[in-house]
Amino acid sequence: MLSPPHAKVDNHEVLLFDGLAYPDPFNSSETSLYIQAFAFRQIFASLTLPAAREVVKGDSGAVGAGRDHVIEERLRLFFARGVPYGPLTIDVTGCSLPAIFQKAVHGRFVSNAGLGRCGLEGERLIATVVGETNGVDAPVQASVFSAPNAGYGVISDVDDTVKQSFVLDKRRLIKATFVDEPKPVQHMPELYASLSHTLAHPQFVYITGSPFQLYPFLRSFIYDTYPTAKGPILTRELDFSLTNPARMLGFLDHDNLKNFKLEAIGNLTRFYPQKRWLAIGDSGEKDPEIYGAAYRNHPDSIACIWIRRVEGAMNDPERFLQAFRGVPQDRYKVFDDSEIPSLARIDVRRGCV
């Protein structure tokens, strides 16, 4: 069992995200690491968290005090501020070199580093932040998923693809994000378990428009609900003014979502140029347009695209024709919830539909 992904190191709070290990593009016998971390301190939490909690309760229609502790726990990182920290040194089990990242002025590390030779390709490794704890906290640790530059991987959205989020309904979205226990989209855990088997343990990577402040919440959900489909969760940046707690809901603005996801997918195709990816998303936001563009950018890497049709979204056939312009019709499928069990019978190695 891993230690909590964040605790105090060198008198700073440090959050370590799950990472990816991939063959060094310049020396295939060695391994590179892609990982994120956040060094921070809480600011005015005792004053701002109660105010933010009331914003959430008002915007979500939540009543009563029974979920106050849940709301505040999910909000806590929204009231953290990055601090200068570094260099950051991370040891990864089975690897000959530590990963060393230079100082981050605002506390956010998002980078690659060499690990030398690692003897456990295809295994889940343990990354540990090197530094002094205060004697109470356990080491700051995270998983590193080591995948070969071959075979298949799964790129997955989170909200309304694997988790019920109700992105098209602001009140229900806020309630599902900050108040309620998370629930999976029906049949999706079974589908992902099936994909893990039929694709011989593909690397799952979750790319979400949610901000990194929700990472601990999303990670717990994925680990608990999709135990055979664990993987790193790539999240967006979000900043806002502490003087206006309502602006913590700024992640509802998805203007830059397409660029963020396309950049993340582009990185995966560079890390694993010979791996083929099944991209799974939904029609509630921009996944059809994003995955269509990703295919046009990387046609040899994107093997299949599956899009869940969300009720109330723009599901006009013309939208999908435009989104998948240039994508062969047998390379993408738009499906209803009733079709999810039948997706498990598709062998993606032989076809997408």
| Terminal residue distance | 38 Å
Gyration radius, to the nearest Å?
A: 20 Å
In the CATH hierarchy, what is the class of the largest domain?
A: Alpha Beta
- Number of helical segments with 4 or more residues: 9
The unreliable regions are none
User: Into which percentage range does the β-strand content fall?
Assistant: 25-35%
User: Which fold does the CATH topology of the largest domain refer to?
Assistant: Rossmann fold
Order of helices and strands: EEEEHHEEEEEEEHHEHEHEHEHEH
Helix and strand content put the structural class at alpha/beta
Number of strands: 16
Brief descriptors of the model:
353 residues, alpha/beta, Immunoglobulin-like, Rossmann fold, 2 domains, 10-stranded mixed beta sheet, 6-stranded parallel beta sheet, 9 helices
Would you kindly provide a written description of the structure presented here, covering whatever features stand out?
- The protein is of the alpha/beta class and 353 residues long.
- The protein folds into two domains: 6-43 and 80-146, Sandwich (Immunoglobulin-like), CATH 2.60.40; 152-343, HAD superfamily/HAD-like (Rossmann fold).
- It contains nine helices and 16 strands.
- The chain has helices at residues 45-60, 68-75, 170-178, 188-198, 215-225, 257-271, 287-297, 317-323, 340-343, and strands at 6-9, 12-16, 19-24, 27-42, 80-82, 88-92, 99-101, 108-116, 124-129, 141-146, 152-156, 203-211, 233-236, 276-282, 302-308, 332-335.
- Strands 1, 2, 3, 4, 5, 6, 7, 8, 9 and 10 form a ten-stranded mixed β-sheet that branches.
- Helix 8 (317-323) links the parallel strand 15 and strand 16.
- Helix 6 (257-271) runs parallel beside helix 7.
- It is globular, with a radius of gyration of 20 Å.
- 43% of the residues are buried.
- The mean pLDDT is 89.
